Recover the amino acids of this structure.
């Protein structure tokens, strides 16, 4: 499976909403409702923000939401805050002998 | 609380070997699938290997197949990655990861591996 496709960067002003897309294929994103999103600050380990397309782990702000249409999943961050500035990665289960595939990452900049 | 602590990273020459370890605590280790995920410098995340709860099912990324071996000891709550025939392109931070419902529920802090002569 090839890496999922994410935009290299997105930006928004405080209080605004942004959406990060994650495009895969019918063999991964399109076939399974098992897309997850991770937030990573420089020099730190990633942290799960969304799993199973739309679910939020306990403790994650409800400003983060996920969705999926066809082969494309999306992460929406509403009410942007400075602390949201980070790298975001999507990941999808893909089955078979290489079960997981990541996106290339998107740098979110809060202007 | 859930903790994953990696160790064993370091500098190794091309063709050399290294063994990474991950000490798990704060959860029922034997109930969870585990993975190793790596991140090359200034690059994205790459899934490396997966092992199910009792070690009966193991997968590897094509890039490490035949060179890396994942294993676990449920009695000691530990996960390992034996890395042989290391290449420059294996240089990365290696994360131990606890899987929950097909996503990474918890990450370790990472251990850096540098392959260079």
């Amino acid at each position: 499976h090839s890496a999922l496709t994410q935009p290299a960067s997105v930006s928004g002003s405080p209080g605004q909403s942004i959406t990060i897309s994650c495009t895969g294929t019918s063999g991964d994103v399109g076939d399974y409702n098992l897309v997850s999103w991770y937030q990573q600050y420089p020099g730190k380990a990633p942290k799960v923000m969304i799993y199973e397309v739309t679910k939020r782990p306990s403790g994650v702000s409800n400003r983060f939401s996920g969705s999926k249409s066809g082969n494309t999943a999306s992460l929406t961050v509403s009410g942007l805050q400075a602390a949201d500035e980070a790298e975001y990665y999507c990941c999808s289960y893909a089955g078979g002998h290489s079960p997981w595939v990541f996106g290339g990452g998107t740098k979110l900049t809060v202007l | 609380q859930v903790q994953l602590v990696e160790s064993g990273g370091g500098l190794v020459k091309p063709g050399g070997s290294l063994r990474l370890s991950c000490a798990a605590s704060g959860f029922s280790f034997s109930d969870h699938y585990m993975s190793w995920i790596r991140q090359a410098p200034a690059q994205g995340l790459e899934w490396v290997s997966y092992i199910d709860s009792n070690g009966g099912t193991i997968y590897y990324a094509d890039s490490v197949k035949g060179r890396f071996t994942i294993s676990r000891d449920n009695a000691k709550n530990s996960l390992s990655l034996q890395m042989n025939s290391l290449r420059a392109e294996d240089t990365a931070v290696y994360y131990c990861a606890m899987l929950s419902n097909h996503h990474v529920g918890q990450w370790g802090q990472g251990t850096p591996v540098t392959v260079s002569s």
